[in-house]
Prior knowledge:
CATH superfamily of the largest domain: FAD/NAD(P)-binding domain
Shape: globular
Low-confidence stretches: none
Helix content: 25-40%
Number of helices: 14
Distance between the termini: 71 Å
Radius of gyration: 23 Å
Amino acid sequence: MADHYDVAIVGAGPGGYVAAIRAAQLGFRTACIESRGSLGGTCLNIGCIPSKALLQSSEKFAEAGQALAEHGVKLGEVGLDLAAMMERKDNVVTTLTRGVEFLFRKNKVDWIKGKGRIAAPGRIAVTGHEGAAHEVEATSIIIATGSQSTRLPGIEIDEKRIVSSTGALALDRVPRRLTVIGGGYIGLELGSVWQRLGAKVTVVEALDRIIPNMDRELGTALHRVLARTGLDFRLATKLAGLRDLHDVFELELEGADQQTLAADVVLVAVGRRPYTDGLGLEALGVVLDEHGRVAVDDGFATNIPGIYAIGDVIRGPMLAHKAEEEGIALAEQLAGQKPHVDYDAIPGVVYTWPEVASVGSTEEELNAAAIPYRIGKFPFSANPRARSNGYTEGFVKVLAERETDRVLGVHIIGPDAGTLIAEATLAKEFGASAEDIARTCHAHPTLSEALKEAALAVDGRAIHI
């Protein structure tokens, strides 16, 4: 007989494993089906976590070679042990994935190892790594299979010389010339890693700006800073062709003029697409939207009763923390609660240096919607803690509704922007005004004072500029 569960989740990424834990906390008998040999999905295994480990290590390498002298720290010749750096990255991943295993045991979530296919409403066929198959029955089935890298037509990724983000996290040498196709957060983060370690990095972006989903002013500022560190940008340029000359690639670029570019490694980072392969959705009649995402209502329900979906496979930004919030909300909804996810309060972060973070509406979106607003800006160069640390690039920008002063968006480029955006996200969640932030006492000296000053600047009352 098939095992029966109240809730069964297909996929153990941030959305899936968090949904499983919360469902178990709420008293549901819960299973999580995962085909990978470890829990945590793309994020923990080959995405967010290993990339941040390499970003941190490469930042320390660059700092040791270039930035410590002004602090009075003198070093000899700085060397790179890439194997040790990769080992540290792998250890971080292993520690965190094992942590999720512990949380499953603690909360009595059953980890079913294998690939899941929804055979019918309430039934999941699971094929194990050895080919053995069995069925799981569940009252509620949650699809949380995440996303995968988008491919470019005619370009075969071998994860050695032509790589996705997965291969770019595991190169066994520093390439002399790395070309990144795509100027979004994945391409910029991984391009930054290898540029710091010694590669000549060129970013090719079809649009006329980088990080196009964020406020345009942030993209302009980040472009300027990264170009100063050595990244080369070819904007409004498309990859027209690629030839393998055995020891080097020749890329044909199409922009304002025809160009060619030589590269030893090519990173394809043109976005991600929902991963629904092998789930059996077509046979079930589950409706997908025009982008191949699972169509759901406001309660994450598909058109098939008892089948739900969260995370990267549905509409909205493909972010781990968005998937987590949806997983928790769905579990609580199944328990009869009335949770709510405010999609206007989902922050986005680019973990380059400086970091870039954003929540709420951009100026472009407000202008398109004809919403009157005021702007308050404050530079980190005027922030005492940033000046003391020697990290003065960037600014905080607060957008507030003209009539009500309600915070509509906050956009930060600068040191630790990914952490600073949390206060702005909380302000958005509570419907705070710029005045609320401005009147809140911030410890001195801290980077967060820059947000307070930007909020003051909305009303022309900034103190330190």
